[in-house]
Amino acid sequence: MKHKHLKTFGSAMVVAWLFCTLLFIRFWPHLVNSNFKKAIVDQGFGDGPVPLNTLFTEPQALFADPLHTVLPPGSSKLMQVGVNHDTLLIVGWLDLTRGPQVLHVPDFSGRYYSVQFTDPYDVDFAYVGTRATGTQAGDYLITGPGWRGSMPSGMKEIFSPNNSVLLIGRILVYSGSDLPTAYSLTKQIQLAPSTNSQSTQ
């Protein structure tokens, strides 16, 4: 056939393109989240690295003037990218291999807030906040895939399909004069290891 080799070459190119596309779709989110983890755990945001299972709250000065706040050399500039004009940020990277973590949120009295849980493949699998759970105070037990403990009373479970979790929180700031109040509420979002449940991972 006159153009048989061209058809073979074209078919091979289509297969190669599809394969590369599938690889990109599969691994790109994981690569992005790996960079997030490095920015949080290894570099931090001016106060040094942020340890696993610890929350970092965006400083008031960085929120007030994100484009002119100078971070120390070696710090991640993640907090300055995609500048939020009306929400304070909190970030943390969870490692659930040693057992669940407890997330405490204060009473936000109707103020908008959101805490997002994302797995290493950039899938948001749970939310705590105004739209998902309301603005009242609450405690949430974040469990990994191998956990076989009992739920403490008064808590709600957030099941993570992976032991590695990116946590991102956003808290609404109404105005410049409201910033100290919003910051105080943000600092009351706390993370701690569970003390009264057992893990058999």
UniProtKB/TrEMBL annotation:
Record-linked InterPro entries: DUF1254, DUF1254_sf
Q: Name one Pfam family in it.
A: DUF1254
Matches recorded under Gene3D superfamilies: Domain of unknown function DUF1254
**Taxonomic lineage:** Bacteria, Pseudomonadati, Acidobacteriota, Terriglobia, Terriglobales
- Lineage, top-rank taxon, reads Bacteria
- Residue ranges that the Swiss-Prot or TrEMBL entry lists as coiled coil: none
Q: What is this protein called?
A: DUF1254 domain-containing protein
DUF1254 domain location is: 79-193
